[in-house]
UniProtKB/TrEMBL annotation:
<keyword id="KW-0552">Olfaction</keyword>
<feature type="transmembrane region" description="Helical">
    <location>
        <begin position="62"/>
        <end position="81"/>
    </location>
</feature>
<keyword id="KW-0807">Transducer</keyword>
<dbReference type="GO" id="GO:0004930">
    <property type="term" value="F:G protein-coupled receptor activity"/>
</dbReference>
<dbReference type="GO" id="GO:0005886">
    <property type="term" value="C:plasma membrane"/>
</dbReference>
<feature type="domain" description="G-protein coupled receptors family 1 profile">
    <location>
        <begin position="44"/>
        <end position="291"/>
    </location>
</feature>
<feature type="transmembrane region" description="Helical">
    <location>
        <begin position="203"/>
        <end position="228"/>
    </location>
</feature>
<keyword id="KW-0675">Receptor</keyword>
<keyword id="KW-0297">G-protein coupled receptor</keyword>
<protein>
    <recommendedName>
        <fullName>Olfactory receptor</fullName>
    </recommendedName>
</protein>
<dbReference type="InterPro" id="IPR000725">
    <property type="entry name" value="Olfact_rcpt"/>
</dbReference>
<dbReference type="InterPro" id="IPR017452">
    <property type="entry name" value="GPCR_Rhodpsn_7TM"/>
</dbReference>
<keyword id="KW-0812">Transmembrane</keyword>
<keyword id="KW-0716">Sensory transduction</keyword>
<keyword id="KW-0472">Membrane</keyword>
<feature type="transmembrane region" description="Helical">
    <location>
        <begin position="101"/>
        <end position="123"/>
    </location>
</feature>
<comment type="similarity">
    <text>Belongs to the G-protein coupled receptor 1 family.</text>
</comment>
Length: 313
């Protein structure tokens, strides 16, 4: 039986990504929507990265993390969107076995890294609001880089474990993935191996990843809220809230859509696909807009870049 599983696994050289099951004429509409959305992801996140790199007023720990958030959003969206866009116009809708492995690896790497990065950003806001006089000393360049490296390390280890577990399974019963990209749960569904251990480890990894990040974010904002409530002037309270509002919106978007996807009943897979669409391309498109529209420093730097005002560099 083991030899048969190995043979079937070795014969599998491609998968079919069926994506959204709609009429052929609607495939063109979905192609246009995906293409426009992904174009906005590219424009918004590359624009944000360039702005942070060249605007001296944005040379702070907060924008160091924000620039990396834009890079991560751009990266995990790019792991999924180009292939999905191409498949809308393709008859076969296939992805090679190696392509599927690579797609899952990079998507898992960047989505997990983003979760930890959002926790690091919450800690940054905690220090900025609760200990403003010590902010420059505590949030040193060295600490920021260490936090970023730690986020990528956790993402890389998680991705390696998840990919190794997923692709040691045999896929002898089917090679049709009921999603527009390679993900763990659809691959488990089409495996002819016993996936109980894989599911237990997958859920355990999810808890290990999500729980610490959520705890750091929640504890940081409990302290932030208590500090803000001690500020006597309403103007001071609003200013403090404004520095956190964008981050809270981004956290809510990511964790809300991911939770919605994985908590969606198996009997309604199309709803899960809509949630997947939200956090693979819609959230990366909205994040730069959230930070640029709600942040005075970003808006001023953008105006300076566009109109060439003095003091930009």
């Amino acid at each position: 039986m083991g030899e048969r599983g190995i043979n079937n696994h070795s014969e599998m050289n491609e998968f079919i990504l069926i994506g959204f099951q709609v009429r052929p004429e609607l495939q063109i509409l979905l192609f246009v929507i995906f293409l426009l959305t992904y174009s906005m992801v590219l424009l918004g996140n590359i624009g944000m990265i360039v702005l942070i790199l060249i605007a001296s007023r944005l040379n702070t720990p907060m924008y160091f993390f924000l620039g990396n958030l834009s890079f991560i959003d751009l990266s995990y969206s790019s792991a999924v969107a180009p292939k999905a866009i191409a498949n809308f116009l393709s008859e076969s809708k296939t992805i090679s076995f190696a392509g599927c492995v690579a797609q899952l690896f990079f998507f898992a790497l960047f989505i997990v890294t983003e979760g930890f990065l959002l926790a690091a950003m919450a800690y940054d806001r905690f220090i900025a609001i609760c200990s403003p006089l010590l902010y420059s000393a505590r949030m040193s360049r060295r600490l920021c880089i260490q936090l970023l490296v730690g986020c990528y390390f956790c993402g890389c280890i998680t991705s390696i474990l998840q990919v190794s577990l997923t692709f040691t399974m045999s896929f002898c019963s089917s090679h049709i993935i009921d999603l527009f990209y390679c993900d763990v749960h659809p691959l488990q569904k089409i495996s002819c191996s016993n996936v109980f251990i894989n599911k237990v480890i997958s859920y355990s990894l999810s808890v290990i990843i999500i729980l610490p990040s959520i705890i750091v974010i929640m504890v940081s904002y409990i302290y932030i809220l208590s500090t803000i409530l001690k500020i006597h002037s309403s103007e001071g309270q609003m200013k403090a809230f404004s520095t956190c509002g964008s981050h809270l919106m981004v956290v809510s978007l990511l964790y809300g859509t991911v939770s919605f996807m994985y908590l969606t009943p198996a009997s309604n897979p199309e709803l899960g696909k809509v949630a997947s669409l939200c956090y693979t391309v819609v959230t990366p498109m909205l994040n730069p807009l959230i930070y640029s529209l709600r942040n005075k420093d970003v808006k001023e730097a953008l105006k300076s870049m566009l109109w060439g005002k003095k003091g930009f560099l």
